[in-house]
Amino acid sequence: MPSEPMSGEAVVNKPSAGGPILAVRDLCVYFELRADGWLSGKRVLRAVDGVSFDVEQGETLGVVGESGCGKSTLARAVLGLVPVTSGEVRFSGRNLAGLDAGQMREQRRHLQIIFQDPLASLDPRMTVGQIIAEPLRSFFPSMNQRERQSKVVEMMGHVGLLPEQINRYPHEFSGGQAQRIGIARALILRPEVVVCDEPVSALDVSIKAQIVNLLADLQAEFGVSLLFIAHDLASVRQISRRVMVLYLGKVMELAPWDEIYRAPRHPYTQALIQAIPPADPRRARAQRAKPLGGELPSPITPPSGCVFRTRCAYAVERCSQETPALRPIGETLVACHLAEQIPQTL
């Protein structure tokens, strides 16, 4: 049954029963770059290159990878904030890539985003109450001020803010509190899907855990689906049911979180896990993680075959000639020719 609409709300595109709430198929986002000189040809940056995944209703899918792997571009493509070169983004069965500006605006009621830098994403000239209420004013202009303020105060309570803070400005809050404001703004419309674009990367370690726990609690309360993007596996471990590992715009591995941490199949996933510092300082001193060698290649001129081969200790000649398909091994999908032969012990 659909949830009861807000005052003035038109019920549009409610999640369908069965099937994923969000389905992405062969998504590509390419950017044409200026030529270096008169005689040089057109250059193309492949930010997202053939990515496919599903997100079920109420699920969190973690997306991890180094900076420059296409995570934020993927997030913006899913929300229609950057043009899609090819592929599909389906929300409740409807392809968002084919919608015009007016139709896409209708869908933004159901698809929201939490940004990486909490303070930079908040207008310093607006009060907390105005910031959180802004989506209500935009989508439900007929809602009166009293009802709008009541919903704002209620949402502030959900994210751990006090009612007396409603007239304060963003600069009066810490980074963690500012992110709570951003979360409240994203959830005030009761969306079905929220994209979390590295929402804890700018926060202190202790505050990171608080924000991740808050998101998990809110997800359980509202039934929202999350696409949780982070540059390290430690941040997604406590909230994600499944984890997708990106490298140079391609999916390297996609698996339930316990499979990812217990038995990672891809060498890149193994390197990311080895980079997670142990919670015990004594173990941290004893454990020397093997650093990932080499530098991230340019997405303008990616390596032939497997894009990870230039940094992979297991690469063979086949890896330079043939692009590995994402294939199932048990519950894991992995893009590696040698996945069965690579040791899984870390």
| Strand content bin | 15-25%
Query: Which CATH-level-2 architecture of the domain at 22-56 and 70-101 and 244-334?
Result: 3-Layer(aba) Sandwich
CATH class placement of the domain at 22-56 and 70-101 and 244-334: Alpha Beta
- Kindly state the percentage of residues in helix: 25-40%
Indicate the mean pLDDT: 87
Rg, rounded, reads 21 Å
Q: Gap between N and C termini, in Å? A: 46 Å
Uncertain stretches of 5 or more adjacent residues: 1-17
Number of helices: 11
Give the strand line-up of the largest sheet. Answer: 6-7-8-3-9-10-12-11
What is the H level of CATH, i.e. the homologous superfamily of the domain at 22-56 and 70-101 and 244-334?
P-loop containing nucleotide triphosphate hydrolases
SSE string:
EEEHEEHEHHHEHEHEEHHHHEE
Shape: globular
Structure class: alpha/beta
By DSSP, the count of extended strands is 12
CATH topology of the domain at 22-56 and 70-101 and 244-334: Rossmann fold
Description:
There is one protein chain. 29% of the residues lie in helices and 21% in strands. The protein has helices at 71-78, 101-107, 128-139, 145-158, 175-187, 205-222, 233-237, 257-262, 267-274, 281-286, 317-321, and strands at residues 22-33, 43-55, 60-64, 86-91, 94-95, 111-114, 193-197, 225-230, 242-247, 250-256, 327-329, 332-334. The strands form two sheets. Strands 6-7-8-3-9-10-12-11 form an eight-stranded mixed beta sheet, with helices on both faces. Strands 2-1-4-5 form a four-stranded antiparallel beta sheet. Helix 4 crosses helix 5 (175-187) and helix 5 (175-187) packs parallel to helix 6 (205-222). Mean pLDDT is 87; it is low at 1-17.
